[in-house]
Specification:
heterodimer, A: 246 residues, mainly alpha, B: nine-stranded mixed sheet, four-stranded antiparallel sheet, disordered N terminus
């Protein structure tokens, strides 16, 4: 609700189309899938931060933080009452989700799924290298794949086209950096929220990468915005932000 | 304002009477054949670990090898009393409570609940250390244990060294040791010093404790699987300042709780709990960690044992506990009535129960403290029916409802434990038949009330 209220306020003040309210719905859904708290006030604050970040933290029209990621990271870093439970989903559910998401991505050739793939490629490579170096059985690697956070992060957070570099090469570089930082935070600082924090810290880098490797800003044409992509979050966001620019 | 407080207090106590029940039995660690218990006290990066296993073999064969993040000094190691583990086990154990139905002919009165008495529940010379790449970083004798802190470069060297020095290592130990060596961990190795052990006068081995600083909030369980011939039960009592602890690389699942079960379970609580745990464990494909208890350590409801005193908490390694911030030296907590009105202490216990084997738990357990301070307990309820002669309409209605209630209890029990329903009915025999009789006796035909 606070997210919707914030979006509504923004719509009113910035004279955006009402359709963009859906963007807030999706951001909030993303948030409630991950965040846990006893305090309703904290949850409300998190969703308000998520939406506000989209309108306030912008550079040349680009909101370079993914709203859900931004709110989550701030909550994890500065509030003691909110947390993310990375292992909360059942294993079978996660395996099924992997298959479905990968399947849909491959068949649908979703436009910006390249960053999901390149991030997964880099990160899994690092995990695999670690397991091999330590001499652990490969069941450890597969066990690490069955982590709900990894799945959600790859397909619903880092894949946000509005807050990642515009150039395809930029996205590959960016996802590599996120993977390395996440690996460091997880296996050297032992923080279980490594993925979320890594993306948060590196998001501003998007602006520099965009300068180095300029490309056409992502703009999803309205009439092409069918909900065919598996990544509804992205799709909605594309639709909404696409409209709001005109 | 005063009135408001009084009102609130009244609400608290009523709520409590309606909720607590009387504690009758607990399912503590004595239920399990092969079990180990670990107390994991954690704040920021400081950890105090207490380990206790119910080792039943020859004392001379006992050896404990635990990867530790740093070379521990003598002051970081301690041998604790077994009693302290028993206290924390008893305090947090899943519990059975009972209620007695009131006379339906009398208006409800909280005081009709009757009190029930709780049912009772010497180290060898380091000849070839260098060639094997093993360094003895430190060595101590603490209590009945000879302790070494070893550093190693290669797992095969460490395995060989341990074997040469009289530690019986199972096959595959080297593979299990390797990942820890590669992560630059040291090894805490303990063996029983037989002459010191005799001096202690105990027939068992006492828990070993050590304290260290590390960002890793984890328990190395992989080494223990090497010499195990089947799944092992482990109880983890995590004590933190604020909230519940959960595993971050395995799902933490709340154990089924709060069910009404047939009265005969009172004498079979251990069987019931074991079966129920087994069913839940299999239902989750043997891959999850179960939450059995999560509570602030200042109170309980109902209490399976009194809350721990400050002194006891300190013995467990709760290093931030001092008399000034704890007012629990002589807890006045009676079973069934609580919570204390003074501020609650900063000590929150999470009891996790994991049954693990190598196949289903490929990684060590990693944890995080959450902001969740909601209470949770494994609690199962017996309801004794009111069995006197029905002298009023309310009593007739009550007795008619009994049969349905008992059927439901039996079905719940069957579902929880996978026991056969017919066996359950057989066991329930006495309680069932009497209530059935009474309900038959008082049962009326459908038309009896129409033309009145």
């Amino acid at each position: 609700m606070p997210a919707l209220f914030t979006q509504w306020l923004a719509i009113r003040e910035l004279k955006l189309p009402y359709a963009s309210i859906r963007s807030a719905v999706i951001s909030s859904l993303g948030l409630i899938l991950l965040i846990r708290s006893e305090s309703l006030a904290l949850l409300a604050l998190a969703s308000a931060i998520a939406i506000l970040s989209k309108f306030t933290i912008r550079y040349q029209g680009k909101h370079f933080f993914n709203p859900t990621n931004f709110a989550l990271a701030l909550m994890l870093l500065f509030s003691e009452g909110a947390w993310v439970s990375p292992a909360q989903w059942g294993e079978e559910f996660i395996i099924a989700s992997w298959i479905i998401l990968l399947g849909i991505l491959v068949t649908e050739k979703a436009l910006r799924s390249d960053i999901s793939f390149s991030f997964l490629g880099w990160y899994l490579l690092l995990l695999l290298a670690r397991v091999t170096y330590l001499g652990q059985p490969y069941s450890v690697f597969f066990h690490q794949l069955k982590n709900g956070s990894l799945l959600l992060f790859s397909f619903f957070m880092i894949s946000d086209p509005k807050s990642t570099p515009d150039h395809p090469v930029g996205r590959i570089i960016f996802s590599f950096l996120v993977a390395v930082l996440a690996y460091f935070i997880k296996f050297h600082l032992y923080n279980p929220n490594a993925l979320i924090l890594a993306l948060f810290f590196l998001s501003p880098l998007t602006l520099f990468i965009d300068k180095l490797l300029p490309a056409k800003r992502f703009d999803w044409p309205v009439n092409n915005a069918k909900m065919r992509s598996p990544n509804y979050y992205e799709t909605f966001d594309r639709v909404v932000t696409g409209i709001s620019k005109h | 304002m005063k009135l408001l407080i009084e009102l609130l207090l009244a609400l608290v106590s009523i709520n409590c009477f309606g909720f607590c029940g009387f504690y009758v039995a607990k399912a503590d660690s004595s239920l399990y054949n092969k079990s180990s218990q670990v107390v994991l006290v954690r704040h920021e990066n400081k950890t105090a670990l207490t380990m206790f296993s119910d080792y039943r073999g020859e004392l001379k064969d006992f050896a404990l090898v635990v990867p530790v993040p740093e070379v521990l000094s003598r002051e970081q190691i301690n041998v604790a009393d077994r009693a302290i583990i028993e206290r924390v086990d008893a305090f947090s154990a899943p519990r059975l409570v009972e209620y007695f139905d009131a006379d339906p002919c009398e208006p409800p009165m909280w005081s009709t609940m009757r009190s029930m008495k709780a049912s009772k529940g010497g180290l060898v010379g380091p000849s070839s250390d260098k060639t094997l790449g093993v360094t003895i970083e430190a060595q101590y004798t603490v209590g009945e244990y000879d302790i070494l802190i070893l550093g190693a470069k290669e797992s095969s060297g460490l395995e060989k060294w341990l074997k040469e020095n009289g530690y019986q290592l199972p096959k595959g130990a080297s593979t299990a040791l390797e990942p820890y060596i590669k992560q630059n961990l040291k090894f805490f190795v303990a063996k029983v010093n037989l002459s010191e052990q005799v001096k202690t006068g105990f027939q068992y081995l006492r828990p070993i404790q050590f304290a260290y600083e590390s960002n890793r909030f984890m328990l190395p369980i992989r080494l223990g699987m090497v010499n195990s011939d089947g799944p092992q039960d482990m109880l983890i009592y995590a004590i933190t300042k604020k909230g519940r602890v959960e595993t971050t690389n395995y799902r933490t699942v709340k154990l089924p709780t709060g069910m009404d079960v047939p009265i005969y379970i009172k004498t079979k609580f251990a069987d019931f709990y074991r079966s129920m745990f087994e069913v839940a464990h299999n239902k989750e494909n043997q891959k999850v960690v179960f939450l059995e208890y999560a509570w602030n350590m200042g109170w309980c409801d109902p209490c399976a044992a009194d809350p721990l005193t400050t002194e006891e908490l300190r013995k467990l390694g709760v290093f931030w506990a001092t008399e000034s911030n704890y007012n629990l030296k002589s807890p006045k907590v009676r079973p069934g009535v609580i919570p204390p009105l003074q501020a609650l202490p900063e000590a929150f216990i999470t009891r996790l129960h994991v049954k693990y084997d190598a196949k289903h738990f490929p990684e060590d357990l990693f944890f995080q403290e959450t902001g969740d301070s909601e209470n949770f307990q494994g609690r199962y309820i017996l309801r004794h029916p009111w069995m006197k002669e029905a002298k009023c309409e309310a009593a007739v209605r009550y007795q008619k409802g009994l049969k349905g209630r008992q059927t439901k209890e039996a079905e719940t029990l069957a579902k929880l434990t996978n026991w056969k329903l017919e066996d359950i009915y057989k066991e329930m025999g006495k309680e069932l038949s009497s209530s059935n009789e009474s309900s038959e006796k008082t049962s009326e035909k459908w038309y009896q009330n129409i033309f009145k």
